[in-house]
């Protein structure tokens, strides 16, 4: 789609989107979450979920050694079982993107880096662009940016649009995931508007949360975002991915999200190219459940390395 000519034009478009039925969205998400998955399908779903994980460490105490260990786990989640798929990406702060890039070279696992003054997004545009360029120069192939929620909630949609578009240009060949921080957007209507705004500005993915704000990802919010990418694809022919992040800790949670993807956006989104799960602790539960299906017994809690 063409860039909007004014904030009034963009406001008219975003406020002209169909409203979200809150009760209907939550009921449908709950109904889909209640579906049972048979054993064979569950095994396939677990492997698919593993392949969609963005294995993440975003702590002030992160060290190069911790990042290298996380990268080793991303490439070979269970050293004793080479049939376990590798994860989609490792996500780190920009100053550690070079460490991750070195550790993951040739593995096929992407290097994702948060940028643009993560998690608050409160910094001058020049600083956000420098943050993005530094991460890409260090080897990041994916950038997870945060929108200016203050500008969005104040109705300055054009400022948010232009900032996303500038960051997208700064990414070069790297993919851009735009974090909406849905827990601060207050309504499902705002989630839908922010989703369309980000996609029109050039997002390759839209992402629920930083994981630093509660609530983070929820099935109902993700359902609204999946509807948005489905409708955007129908309108433009461009397929944008979705990434729920924050609070997804169990295999049961992950499979619920895969059901949502299949039923709302469709099976074309059931690939790491178009759906990711941002997580730090989910992978171990997926590995434990996978081993239970394979061997009939759970591994001990200390069998898998801590993320």
Automatic annotation (TrEMBL):
**Pathway(s) annotated for this protein in UniProt:** Carbohydrate degradation; 2-deoxy-D-ribose 1-phosphate degradation; D-glyceraldehyde 3-phosphate and acetaldehyde from 2-deoxy-alpha-D-ribose 1-phosphate: step 2/2
Matches recorded under NCBIfam families:
deoC
GO terms under cellular component? cytoplasm
Sorted keywords for this record are:
Lyase, Schiff base
Tagged with keyword Lyase: yes
* InterPro entries xref list: Aldolase_TIM, DeoC, DeoC/FbaB/LacD_aldolase
Domain of life, per UniProt, equals: Bacteria
Family to which this protein belongs: Belongs to the DeoC/FbaB aldolase family. DeoC type 2 subfamily.
Question: Any idea what this protein is called?
Answer: Deoxyribose-phosphate aldolase
Q: Which GO terms describe its molecular function?
A: deoxyribose-phosphate aldolase activity
Q: What is its EC number?
A: 4.1.2.4
